[in-house]
């Protein structure tokens, strides 16, 4: 079926009549009937049965409509993208950001770049670490922000800063200063975070190597849920500092982990991006954002007595 035939079929199926489909499409009824008849001739089977002035979908039409609905939805998305491109005054930057960095670093980067060029527009997508390489290779994003480099000659990794791990608690840890060691987790009720990528792997390895065995009482699939559980005092959570000091962690007790490995943050881009200047500007801005956010986090730490 041609795209026009799919469009006619979609509207006739949804409205149940030639006349209603014609009104939706702002075309004449004879043109709708003609396209639909040609589609059925081309397919070799009927899509509708005519009964008392209405069109009743056949079993084949019911099956095809599921696919047609998906195609039509994608066509609508395509047309919206065309309108967005037409209305842009300046460049457009598509960012893929880890969920944990999408609450602080991502918005701050967009705000800073908009200050630099108010005509820039943006699209922010949250991606897990395992999705970054494919998103870049398929050119669905211009730059990703992640915790580990991608090993691919077609991709460039720009180290833009570092971070530390933080224990988040719903109430003060007895006798604990601003920084604590991982030993406070031993035997403690803790909320695990699944699908946490390289940080999760590092945390599990470090705790195993040090003989630290928390009591995992709940597992969350997102940092938002994990810190919500902390707020209900279900248990402690071990997160990166950007999550802990985002708006999700406001009002919670947060302790930087001392003597525990941190992590690096990377801007990850295609090596041959067609707009190198735009990407370079974003990488430089991200480096400043990570430093600024990290500095702001440290300023929130209470002074040791």
TrEMBL record:
**SUPFAM superfamilies recorded:** Periplasmic binding protein-like II, Winged helix' DNA-binding domain
Q: Which PROSITE patterns match?
A: HTH_LYSR
Ranges where the HTH lysR-type domain occurs: 1-58
Molecular-function annotations in GO: DNA-binding transcription factor activity; sequence-specific DNA binding
Pfam family for this entry, one: LysR_substrate
Query: Which keywords are on file for this protein?
Result: DNA-binding, Transcription, Transcription regulation
Q: Which family does it belong to?
A: Belongs to the LysR transcriptional regulatory family.
This chain belongs to the protein called LysR family transcriptional regulator
Q: Which organism is it from?
A: Qipengyuania aquimaris
